[in-house]
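Protocol step 4 of 6: record predicted structures for both targets in the notebook before any analysis. Target 1:
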Amino acid sequence: MSMDTIETWAKLLAPIVSALLIAGFKWYTEGRPRVISYLVQSWGVRIEAGSDGTPGAVVHSHSIVVANTGRKPATGVRVTHGIKQTLPAHAIHPPIQYSIETNPEGYPQIVFPVLVPKQQITISYLYFPPLLYSQILGNVLSNEGMARILDIVPTPRPSRFVSWGTWILATIGGSVIVYWLFRIAIWLVLSA
């Protein structure tokens, strides 16, 4: 087999091999449950004393989002808390089946039996000082593993043109890398 024939085959196979590698990587990373969680907001409001003598107060609140961004259902999703007392007032939106259990260490946890793919829920808490969100907030985990806790800044989603352009450029770059690896391997074989 001549060097020109081998190079022709390398040029033809490099894009196909790189596209298959990219597709396999994407399938592997996205073909499972992927639970994420992030803090949406935390705030405190001072309520002034009324002119009729009613005392003022300070009220704290925070909300977290728990989502399954993967392609398979996440089972046994548990939101643990850092206080050993009963949970403060809370609301879960959208309404979903859940239970409140106590883990072996004595901390309360909200348990969701299943989060389907692309499902997102928001948990809002309302409480009074001296509690702070950092004292209430615990870990988020599921039967598949720990949730990824994100520090987020809202950003716009890129357009379809940008997404496709990125994918095409990654495929071209992968093809070039596979081609040159193939060329180096052939050179090493022929020079040995």
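Target 2:
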Amino acid sequence: MSRFALMLVSLAFLTGCSGEREVGSDASGHDTAQLSAIASDLAIQKGMSLLCEREQPDHLSYFMADLRQESVDPAVRERIAEESVEMMNKISTEEPEYICTPEMFESADLRATEALIAWDEMRGITQ
């Protein structure tokens, strides 16, 4: 298996193992598992940007602010924030030579874009 493929599998594994996700929705009506998945993808992008010292908009912080504005339960927001920090910490322990590649950035950026689209769809915003 190539190093690139191994790293993609590793990131997918980290995403899948980033803590138990609650199934259901909170008082605001948002699916908490979807919110966690969106935050995870944004945390991967942010973690990679921090590790690789790459200038990138901080979509994760904007997402967390949106959750507050959407009146998502504070306990859900706290759990999502903890999972996001955990994900970024895991990425920070990786070797930059394997993470800071154009292919990895392309993959992370695509996932972040898809996550932001899913977030907009959850809120009824269409483009």
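Step 5 preliminary note on target 2. The chain is about 70% helix and 0% strand. Confidence is low (pLDDT under 50) at residues 13-23.
Proceed to step 6 after PI sign-off.
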